[in-house]
Amino acid sequence: MASGDDDDPIIEEIDVYLAKSLADKLYLFQYPVRPSNMTYDDVNHLSARIKPKQQKVELEMAMDTNSPNYCRSKGEQIALNVDGTTYEETNTYSAKIMDKQTFTSIQATTNTSRYAAAVFRKGELHITPLSGILQMRPSFTYLDKADTKTREREAANEGGDSSQDEAEEDVKAITVRFARPESEQARQRRIQSYDFLQRKQAEEPWAHLHYHGVKDGHSEHERQYLFCQSVDASENSELVKTPKEYLAMLMPPIAEEKLVKPVGPSNVLSMAQLRTLPLGEQVKTLMKNVKVMPFANLMGLLASGTDSTAALRCIQQVALLVQGNWVVKSDVLYPKNTCSPHSGVPAEVLCRGRDFVMWRFTLERSVLRKEIASIIKLPPEDVKEFLEHVAVPRVNRGWEFLLPTDVEFVKKHTDIAHRQHMLWLGIQSKLEKVFNFSKEDFMPNNSPQPDPVHVTGEQRLKNAQDRAQVNKSSMQKDLNTRRSESSIQVKQEPVSDREDEPMDTSSSSSAINGSVNGYPSAFDHTNGNTGSPANVPSVELKEFVKKTFKKHFVLTLNEFKRLFGLHIASMPSGHSIYPSISDHMLQDAILLCQCKQIMVPFPAQTTAATDEQKVFGLWETGEEFDTQRRLLYELFNKNYRIRRTMIQAKLTQELGDACKADVDRMLNECCISHAGMWYLKGTVPS
Fold first, then answer.
1. What residues have CB less than 8 Å from 294, skipping those under 6 apart?
2. Residue numbers of the domain that contains 606
3. Helix axes 141-156, 72-83, angle to 10 degrees
4. Structural domains of the chain, count
5. Segment 417-459, tens digit of pLDDT
6. Polar residues bias: where (predicted)?
7. Does pTM top 0.90 for this prediction?
């Protein structure tokens, strides 16, 4: 992104008119055997004729026999060979010398719908569609006539007329045959044959024409028809096509022949055929059929020797990570412009509902069907289909995720697991807007396991003590790696006194409270509960804010949260100086670190999330360049997109002289270019 080369200002607007007076009569003649600077405009045209249906034209032009480049002896010899020594009215060359030349047309293209002739006058462009494009080439039919004369002379010179010596021909029997009915295929072959085309051309009579030179008054009169005769706006319709539709009209797509593939059952997948596809298509096909799969199983289905790195790259394009397993993306199962086979619900609504189901499984092992249906508000058949893709029903536990958590994959590919975690955070924020819920509404306890219908108080107390002991042991191991045992107090969970609440009696559940795919959530989306005694940003958080904004200069709240999440994930395991950070605390930290919020006036119909509309910019760094940056922020307080010329004019007005290097630096630091306009980073419309 260098400079104002991305700008594409409009220099001038030109009205375009369509002239139709000569639409069916206008031909373009090309002379490919002669240079463009040697035209035939000044050559005497002796005759002209045309076959309109066949678009066949013949022009007869005089040759300059007095030119020093003309070989007179050769011209006389050619005339003698063609016409002989006798004079007849049908002779080609009446002057006994080759003094004229014939040009015959060949169609350059059969489809002229994309071609037109244009004339420009007084700021208006008038175009007329072409009826044909013809290439005029010299005709050598006179050589055929000379060859015929030669054969006639040779026949005349043969000895005697042998026909006088012949006896009367004997009477011979002939056989009469009736033609068979012509099939359609034979008919198509016949009409495409050379003989048929030659006969068809010969059948159409010639229409003789009068040629008028370029400077002739009649030609000047005809040229006026190249201009649109009526320029009244009420009679001429404006072009209302979109740029993409207009481009498709100018350059229509080439129709490709579709290979007919054998039709088989849609639910049958041949592994032999599958392995002939590219790796990306193999992964996509497998995930569409299986729906949920561990990565190890996927590698087992692919051909031996397949690169695992390439497979990982492909599966991230068509699937999402849920509890260490890969689940096919919703938009792969429900492509755009399709609908539910059960209820007819559009694919876009189905994808949102299924994403909610998958997101719930990133938080806990089991979900309740009624709870899901009450939130996504889709027909029961669709909700059941979502759950059947990734879960199985369990007695007294709702629907449990189909596969056990693949802890080994998460440990081995921590970078991919973290990337997927951040992706789920983005999906979560969109789902919160659509379905109007908060993550805290679904903060799971350990996944419910089957309990006896009647649980005694002693049994309930024993279960709680066992869980507390397990939690204490795991926390104790973590404490030994980073702090002394005296600096931490372990707090046991209180025993629930609700009689109807099922208790978890096993430690097999792999879902971690408040986590996604095994990673702790970096943000608490509440604005009040920050997890610290005072709602004040820590020194470490302020340092991170300063370092980040000195690097990026402009960030949306959503992008800052993403960078902060990456920072949290990059810290050593078990080491966290941020116990719980709310969105409110992040905004306070940004505003306390020489940054200010830029109130960008987004359009009313924007689909950007709330966090994407909160834009913060570095306000003060101690440099002289801060002044230019503030002037830029003032412009973006008035409009969400600006042209470079407006930025240049603002700086020149306020600072007197703004060099190109300063403008380039400021735009590179704070903005991004799109479609000839400049936007603050993170605010380009999707």
1. 324, 325, 326, 403, 406, 409
2. 520-680
3. 60
4. 3
5. 998 999 998 898 888 888 887 666 665 544 444 444 444 555 6
6. 466-478, 511-535
7. no
